[in-house]
Each structure stands twice: as structure tokens, then as C-alpha cells.
Amino acid sequence: MSRLDAVIFDVDGTLVDSERDGHRVAFNAAFEAAELSDRWDIATYGRLLKITGGAKRLAFWFESTGRSPGEAAELAERLHKRKTQIMRRLVEDGQVQARAGAHQLIDEIEASGVPVHVATTGTRAWVEPLLEHAFGNRFHTVITGTEVPDLKPSPAAYLEVLRRTGCPPEHAVAVEDSANGVQAAVAAGLRCVAAHNPYTRDDDLSGATLVAGGLDDPALVAWFHRRLRKRPDE
What we know:
Blueprint: E1 6-9, H1 19-33, H2 42-48, H3 54-64, H4 69-92, H5 102-111, E2 116-119, H6 124-135, E3 142-143, H7 156-165, E4 172-176, H8 179-187, E5 191-195, E6 210-212, H9 218-227
Parallel strand pairs: 1-2, 1-4, 2-3, 4-5, 5-6
Helix pairs in contact: 1-4, 3-4, 4-6
InterPro entries: CbbY-like, HAD-like_sf, HAD-SF_hydro_IA, HAD_sf, PGP-like_dom2
GO molecular function: hydrolase activity
Pfam families: Hydrolase (PF00702)
């Protein structure tokens, strides 16, 4: 295997436990603020996660519950803005936490001299404060859905990270949690290590080089340990 010159992380469900008790809570609060009776329980939200992007998820939901396409699109746009505001507040209140093993993995990657980056389809309005609150200023390049609107499984976000860093894809690895994410990474020419979560446990992650149960899974930790460059003093 060629050396690692970059590790590119997804955010939602990969670096942070953000879906069930973050985004889902924010969506439900946005419904309530708009005086709508719609609510997403844990199982329903898990099914909706197959649709990448919050606004598209909302539009799909509104159409599937009887709204016209025009009404669904208008509602989705309006509520997604409100949801983003609520999500940012949850982030600032410390309600969204790093996944187990995330800090330790980043520590080892940084100690080896390999830069860490982010490629996510989330909007910068909440991604940026989340990364700052949960991890501090540790990521060299952060590409969000605000800069690259093509959502995963499009490889656009990963390709933009590679373009900005100048890193050849064969010298980088992506860390993902979902089928859409793995497909996006592979389409960008990247190897991908997948750390699934309860929502993505049944996703088809067969395109990944390794499928692990989390960022603290011994198999994932060992995979990186074997492939990171040695420290200069070793």
C-alpha cells in the first residue's frame, strides 16, 4: 500500500454522533416551530437517512405525506433554514459529541505528521462550529455542502479536497459511515475505511477497504497504525 499523505473524514455519523440526537431533534423542533404535526421518530429518521441532504429529505417527506411538489419544495426550503439554526444551537450547547475513538484516532494521525481534512455534505453554518466545539482547530481543509452542493454519493466534495490539497487519491484515505459516503469516496478514487453506526449497520459498505464497528474498533485502529508514517524521532 502506498504511503498516507492525507486522511479525509466525513462528519455526520462518522466523527460525531449527530443523526439521532442532533439532526433528528432539530428537524422535529423545526416542525414544531412551524406548527406542523409532522414528527420523525428514531426508526423513521433512520429510513429517511437514505436520502442525502436535509432539504431533499424534507421535500421527500412532505411529498410522501400528501403535499404537492410545489408546496413540498417551499416547506422544505423554509424549514431547512430553521432546522440549521436549531442544529447550530444544539452544537453550541454541547449536545452533539464526538464518537468514541475519534479524538484518539486523530491524535495518532496528527502525531504521524499526516494532515486531516473533512468532506461533508452538511452546511458550513453548523459544521464549522461543531468541528470547533468537538475537536478544536485540527482540520487543514474543510469542504461542506455550502461550497460543493453536489451531495454524496457524488464524489464532488472529496474531489474538491484533493484539488485544494494537491494530494493524489492513491495517497489518501477516506473515513465514512454510510453507503452513500463509501460510494462517494470510491468514485473519487480513494480507498475508504468505513466505521458504521446503528443507523448504517445494514448499509452496503462492500466498497470499503475495511468495515469496522466504530472508530475505536481494534481492526480500524490497527489498520491506521500499520499505515501511518513513523514519527521523525522513531
